[in-house]
Amino acid sequence: MTGLNFIHAKQTSWAKRRGIKLVGSQGTKGAKNYTEKLEDNLFEKLTKETKDAIDRGDGGELKYKEDTLPKMFALHSSSALGINIFQYWKSKKKISDIAYACGLCAKNNKNAIDLKFEVKFKISNKFKHHPNIDVVIENSNDSSIKAFGIECKFSEPYSTRQHQGLRDKYLVDISEQWIDIPSLHTLAKKISPIDNDFKFLHPAQLIKHILGLKEEYGKSAFRLLYLWYDVYGDEGSKHRCEIEKFKEIAKKDNVMFHSLSYQELITFLSDNFYNTNEKYIDYITDRYL
Length: 289
Fold this sequence. Notes:
Layout: H1 3-18, E1 22-23, E2 34-35, H2 48-56, H3 78-91, H4 95-101, E3 112-120, E4 132-139, E5 147-152, H5 168-172, H6 182-190, H7 203-217, E6 222-228, H8 233-252, E7 257-261, H9 262-273, H10 278-288
Helix pairs in contact: 9-10
């Protein structure tokens, strides 16, 4: 069973246990791994703030395309998974707890003051569009680390689609942004325009996030977390190896890059935060662990 098939099978089994009706992306057409209603795919309804942020993003997660359901209706939606994990803690005003569970700060750290979805950071005034980071936890002004960026992945690493590198504008139109990250610059040039080095990790996307966070906060004032869904077998093993490979390159440039699987995060939450959060943790454990 491929990693993608494993994720699909696990999610459809969860939906059947919950009595959730599934349809294809075009109703009767396509594999039945979409929910009819967005609410069926979420632990709790989107808050207005979250919905507005997703609408402002470039992914079109909530947009209908003719007779095709929005991406977030898919059981394997990484956006839905990110919302299911993070919106709860923002609603409960316990952002420091989820930051700690992600390994981004100490247990008693209270600097985390806000959590936002689909945040854009400008890389250069020469660029009209800026990449979206799935989740950003903002810290107080007196914190040495101003923000934690989180890139969330679910089924994407296990698709058969080849990753693109960076467009010429990142390698030709800017230069100052690369000066203090020479190792990542070398990697960027090596994997562009087509990435033949990484099959599961998408380093070009991570590099763009690093450029944006660095431009906004400075290289020493942010952490970037790669939060990903692990699978059994060769694909999962190779994905982990690629993450470590990228981590070593980022480390050479003194970029604070971290990685964590959703399974590790959910297990940690269950072990340390179950009391008073039982319904939420039961949901994410039953569905994703």
